[in-house]
Each structure stands twice: as structure tokens, then as C-alpha cells.
């Protein structure tokens, strides 16, 4: 309940400096103990398959009432827009591969944000950003 009620600060989602955000004790006490929504990128790896190179995104997308998740990429440290990659993830994934993005999608810039957004059936969302530095 503490993680799900924390107020996000700085980079959207969990990050290395601020974790899940600022603890909001009042919100945690008011939170539904059955509510859960998780958006987590645990790693990114380069993989080859059938002569093509991909960036594999691994992590967890889950909720106690999971609706769907989307993976997108944006150019630079603070993208003004994102491009959706692949199909929506329609079932929860726990510590697994979320998608494979063709490596050519990253050719235009040295820094990219990989973003996942998880949507709960009640409409709430949680997102996480992963900074990918190339070269």
C-alpha cells in the first residue's frame, strides 16, 4: 500500500534516486489493501533472431485487475512524444520479456527513454521509464 500510494517525483515511475517517490502516509492509510499495480523494467538486452537485431525489454506488468500495458520509446532524456512499440500486452507478465523492439528504431539518437504504462481496470495507471544510452 505504501508503494502504490507514493507520490511520484522526478522521472516517472521507480528510479535510482527517488525510488517509488515520496511516501504519503495519509494516502497509504486510505488505500485499498487489495489494490495493486506494477510497472517495472528490470533490464534491456540486445538479442539476434533470424538475422535481425532487437532490443528485448524485460520486466513486470501486473495489477490485481489488469487491463493492459503498452511499451513505447521516446528520443532524448525528456521526450516530448513517444512511439508505441508492438501490440498492447493483454495479460500480466511477471519477470519476463515484455517486447522486442527492432534495433533500427534507435538509430536516430544516442539516448532513448523506454517507457511502459500499465492500466488498471479502474482506469488508474502506473508508468516507468528506462534510460537507454547507446554507444
Helix/strand layout:
Blueprint: H1 2-5, H2 25-30, E1 37-49, E2 52-63, E3 66-75, E4 83-84, E5 93-102, E6 111-120, E7 125-133
Antiparallel strand pairs: 1-2, 2-5, 3-4, 3-6, 6-7
Explain how this protein is built.
There is one protein chain. The protein is mostly beta strands and 135 residues long. The chain folds into two domains: 35 residues, no CATH class; 97 residues, Sandwich (Immunoglobulin-like). The protein is built from two helices and seven strands, in the order H-H-E-E-E-E-E-E-E. The strands form two sheets. Strands 4-3-6-7 form a four-stranded antiparallel beta sheet, with no helix packed on it. The longest helix is centred in the first third of the chain and has 6 residues. The radius of gyration is 15 Å and the shape is globular.
Top-tier CATH class of the largest domain: Mainly Beta
CATH-defined topology of the largest domain: Immunoglobulin-like
Overall geometry: globular
Most strands sheet: 4 strands, antiparallel
Give the helix tally. 2
Mean pLDDT: 89
Strand content: over 45%
Total number of beta strands: 7
Q: What is the CATH homology-level superfamily of the largest domain?
A: Immunoglobulins
Provide a short characterization of the protein structure.
The protein has helices at 2-5, 25-30, and strands at residues 37-49, 52-63, 66-75, 83-84, 93-102, 111-120, 125-133.
Q: What distinguishing features does this structure have?
A:
135 residues; mainly beta; Immunoglobulin-like; 4-stranded antiparallel β-sheet; 2 helices; 7 strands; 7% helix
Amino acid at each position: 500500500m505504501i508503494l502504490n500510494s507514493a507520490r511520484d517525483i522526478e522521472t516517472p515511475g521507480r528510479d535510482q534516486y527517488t525510488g517509488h517517490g515520496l511516501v504519503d502516509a495519509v494516502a497509504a492509510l486510505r488505500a485499498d489493501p487489495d489494490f495493486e499495480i506494477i510497472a517495472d523494467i528490470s533490464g534491456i538486452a540486445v538479442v539476434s533472431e533470424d538475422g535481425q537485431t532487437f532490443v528485448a525489454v524485460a520486466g513486470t506488468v501486473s495489477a490485481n485487475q489488469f487491463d493492459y500495458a503498452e511499451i513505447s520509446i521516446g528520443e532524448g532524456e525528456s521526450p516530448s512524444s513517444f512511439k508505441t512499440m508492438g501490440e498492447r500486452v493483454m495479460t500480466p507478465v511477471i519477470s519476463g520479456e515484455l517486447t522486442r523492439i527492432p534495433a533500427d528504431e534507435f538509430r536516430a539518437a544516442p539516448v532513448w527513454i523506454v517507457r511502459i504504462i500499465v492500466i488498471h481496470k479502474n482506469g488508474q495507471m502506473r508508468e516507468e521509464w528506462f534510460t537507454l544510452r547507446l554507444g
